[in-house]
Write a structure and sequence with these properties.
By secondary structure, this protein is an alpha+beta fold. The protein has 10 helices and 15 strands. Strands 1, 5, 6, 7, 8, 9, 13, 14 and 15 form a 9-stranded mixed β-sheet that branches. It has a 6-stranded mixed β-sheet with strand order 3-2-4-12-11-10, sandwiched between helices.
Length: about 425
Amino acid sequence: MNMKTLWEMTMKYNFARICVVVIAAVALQARAAEGTEMKTLVEGNTAFALQLYGKLRSTEGNLALSPYSISSALAMTCAGARGETARQMEQTLHFEQSQTDLHALFGRLDTALKAAQGSNELNIANSLWPQEKYPFRAEFLSLLKKDYGATVTPLNYKREAEQARVTINQWVDDKTRHKITEIIGPGVLDESTRMVLVNAIYFKGTWTTPFPEFATQPDKFYTKPDTSVTVPFMHKRGQFGYGENDQLQLIALPYVGRQLEMLVLLPRSRDGIGQLEDSLTPASLSVWTSGMRNQQVNVTLPKFKMSSGFSLEKTLPALGMKDAFDPERADFSGMDGHSHWLYIGAVLHKAYIDVNEKGTEAATATAVVTTLGAARHTVEPPREFRADHPFLFLIRDSTTGSILFMGRVSHPGND
């Protein structure tokens, strides 16, 4: 072998190595960019979740909702919005204008959340129910199928609105394991309905360490500083993510696999829930959770079961999404090619949650109706975490930070 041949072979080998390095670097760069975009999407979803909660918190008593379900349903609707309608929806939902791949990102986030369930059960389902033979754009329908995994089932609202309502409710009932039996009430759908978009989430999580049932005992829960009711309290001791300051205590109770968890935010004072809600922002939540450390904690938590239902036709415009609900100004031409034919007639949401010794069962559904005319260990003594007065809870994916469910427990028991 002469020197020329050896040099040529060496250069080919080096070129191949360089190609591999460059390709690997490009792949790493792409993954980093995707991670940044995903982080931005989750941060936007969190900002919307806490702003929406801020509008709904005036409701008396217990409150439960799924911010992720609402964001998903409205994101599907936003895919068909154009012009000022789209701008208002993106601003309200905290979608970045630069996120041209927004809907594909939602699809990847759905996949990541489902992968986080481990041996728990987390089902996220989307569906689209258009008017039979209505000329929705093929690109719009294709996007919802591809990025959101939405099933598309045409219905006849013009002649069989009540039967359409029953059909959609049956789908939700099935997807939520019979916890949300009726998302759409009588009279919501009529001959002018052109489409219903639905997101349904069902979660059944098992605590990493269950609360022993023999330890559950009745005790006082203070609904007000001087008013109490007797309810069953669960007890357990173990290593948990824990944080505290002058205003609150917070604890992370993990489900099997430890990626999904329930955060419980407990104000220090019995009448401190309002002040805690006032201070709940993406920034404060980030500060509180970043200060949590693995510690030995004695946990006392009431069993609770609740359901909530509400419509958002007034709440969402108050957050800035005005044109979407205005028949004269709404532009959903991305759905059917016509600028001012379709508008949002209703946004309906229901949530259910049951927390007990074994874990948590939660379900939610959101329907958007468009109408013609979506660690370290310490040697310190165990901390005491006793949730015997109103508190907040968040069920989230600890890796992405996505909030699946959240709410307020003012009175444990059946709501």
